[in-house]
Design a protein that fits this description.
CATH class of the largest domain: Mainly Beta
Number of helices: 1
Strand order of the largest sheet: 2-9-8-4-6
Number of strands: 17
Shape: flat
Distance between the termini: 104 Å
Order of helices and strands: HEEEEEEEEEEEEEEEEE
Length: 272
């Protein structure tokens, strides 16, 4: 009896299933081994949001995490396998697949990016590696139904000035994280940043924040910082020159990664 006719359809069907499986896989598991980044490559990691809001008690939140692989020359690398791990929470492939992605090779796209989704109930660190290249990023969580972040300049008094008129002057700013009812939320990591700043001639200047650009909100949801013009830029904002060149700029407060940005807070510097 000729069994070839019976065997070939079975082998054909099995091969077809293998092809389909490899075709739909989001990882490099069908290659047999990882395609890792060459020696000297680097990995950077970003997340959106970098501060994950846990809206309900006992709940969890998610963030899109992207690792970008660069060659030693700084060129994004396509089709390099990246493996992700996290100190807490779970990692998944992006929707609509939503498959487990911890320690699974995820190939980079044409921009050098490999994506996963982190779901967690607590602060965690995500690490990505490809060959000898590694990168890590800490993501914090905050409990509460965060609705907005506000920023205001404190009333002048003490060491706080209304306008910067000397290179040593500082203005004081306060950000607040609030929920849907306007109540402050403690434990939120606030990032202070300068949106822009130029003098009357259009020349840019830079400020520095103290004690840090990142401050955790207190029991009332407030985060405080002082702002001054960098010493190297005080001449840019001088009004002792002819013509005088006073400066204006805008500050902002947001979550890590830029989420929930406040409206701009304008300030002036007219240094004598």
């Amino acid at each position: 009896m000729n069994t070839t006719k019976g065997i070939l359809p079975v082998l054909g069907a099995a091969a077809g299933l293998m092809i389909v499986a490899c075709g739909v896989a989001l990882t490099a598991s069908c290659r047999g081994s990882d395609q890792v980044a060459p020696e000297g490559s680097t990995i950077t990691i970003a997340a959106n949001p970098a501060t994950i809001v846990i809206a309900t008690p006992g709940g969890s939140g998610s963030s899109d995490v992207v690792a970008t692989v660069y060659s030693a020359a700084g060129v994004p690398q396509e089709d390099q396998d990246v493996r992700f791990s996290s100190s807490a929470g779970s990692l998944f492939t992006p929707p609509p697949d939503n498959q487990p992605a911890a320690n699974i090779p995820i190939p980079t796209d044409n921009l050098g990016n490999a994506h996963v989704v982190l779901t967690t109930t607590t602060t965690t660190t995500v690490t990505a590696r490809s060959g000898t290249a590694t990168g890590s990023l800490s993501l914090s969580t905050v409990n509460g139904n965060l609705n907005a972040i506000t920023i205001n300049q404190d009333d002048p008094g003490g060491n706080c000035k209304d306008t910067i008129t000397a290179c040593s002057d500082t203005i004081c700013v306060t950000a607040q994280a609030v929920d849907d009812e306007g109540m402050g939320i403690p434990g939120v990591v606030i990032v202070f940043s300068q949106l822009d700043g130029t003098n009357s001639d259009g020349d840019p200047f830079v400020v520095q924040f103290s004690p840090l650009t990142q401050v955790t909100t207190d029991a009332g949801g407030f985060a405080h910082a002082t702002v001054k013009v960098k010493d190297s830029d005080c001449d840019v904002c001088s009004v002792s020159t002819s013509p005088p060149t006073p400066c204006t700029g805008n500050l902002q407060a947001s979550l890590q990664g830029g989420g929930f940005p406040s409206g701009p807070l304008e300030f002036t510097a007219a240094i004598n």
